[in-house]
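Predict the 3D structure for this chain.
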Amino acid sequence: MVDRLEDLDPREALGTPVVASRMVWLLREGDALVLPQPVDAAYVAHVGAMMDFSPARVNLLDPQDRGVRVLSQQVLWQPEMLARLKKLVAVPGEWEIRAYLPDRGVSALALEIGLPEAAVSAFDTQGGAELFNSKAVFRALAAGIGVPVPDGAVCATSGDLERALERLTVPTGAVIVKADRSGGGAGNLLCYKDAGMTAAGAAGTHPLNTDKDRRAIIAHTGLAQSHAPHGQVVAETYHPDCRSLCLEVHCPGPHSGPPRLLNVGEMLMEPIWNGFIMPAQSIPSRVLEEVVGHTLRLADAMSAFGYRGPVNIDAIINSAGHVWFNEVNARLGGCTHLHHLATQLLGPHWQNSHVLVSHNDLPTPSIRALLNAMDRDQLSFNPTTGSGVVITGDDTLNQRTVEYAALAPDLESAQALERRLRNLSV
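Done. Predicted structure below.
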């Protein structure tokens, strides 16, 4: 998700283990999951009880090094890790490999540990999924098929960015500068004329009123006069006070039909993404129809190019109903496990009868104590009523926090569950 691992934002690296823990929700009995760090056994038991698998019937592997945050190629190709993976898949014909992001390294690893060539996609092996995670490639794709994007520019030199900052600030007084390859808003910088502007979608902010400000912004990106040592950046006119949507689509294999919309969620930006409301509430039907139509066109273009699997597509909507698309993510998204668990717990049409509210930042000293307290206060998900809270990610090892989702028949009831959870005595 970044051009160079050393360019990974420290916040992204710190958050990688909890992102990996979300994938426990996707396990079935007999599966194995490779994680950067172990997850608490109480969390695995909680997920297993919800998803009907026994923790004893899944394999959780990690590098057994608490300093590891990211499953880099260096980590995965250690002799000990390779030996464990080769032993795991020694039974021929029974394994396939799936990844959060199916990059070239995943294909190489699959072949190294003995999976058949058919287990990996030729498109992914050549970097296809990585290609679509580029914001510069996204803007070209959107322009080619007529999908609306904010006015902007792909900048490969300091001069490109300097001219973009001057031009793109005019409509709203702000520009957002994005790293070409990054995630969750961690590589975004909001550059503004008005210091009171809300910085939704950007991890950092910087004034843009003087020549010194412009020089500092350019220095932040690392762009040089003739090239981009740390990768290109995308500069776009920033539209304040917008709602942020994420739409998840599945792109099937050849001859399996067109891309299929899975869910539409509203991203909670605080100031960067920190949770969802699914399905998104109170979107005018005309606007929703427009957003879904453009989303399926983007997914169809990606599918025609060779991409298979989940794609998460981000858009923003202002109060007047104008729509702009921000990016596509050719990988699992922050909503993938949420949609999966809600489907398993409530049925395939859960979005017609229920609302899910999630957040990524609940402090807790112990996940086991939290689960016990939820049971005590009758907050845990109850399949009979179709309401309650589930813990969706475990980061107690690093930051003493967990992620959660509250499910209920309506938004007000889901938010009431949330308030009870946050006031819970653990």
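The chain has a mean pLDDT of 94.
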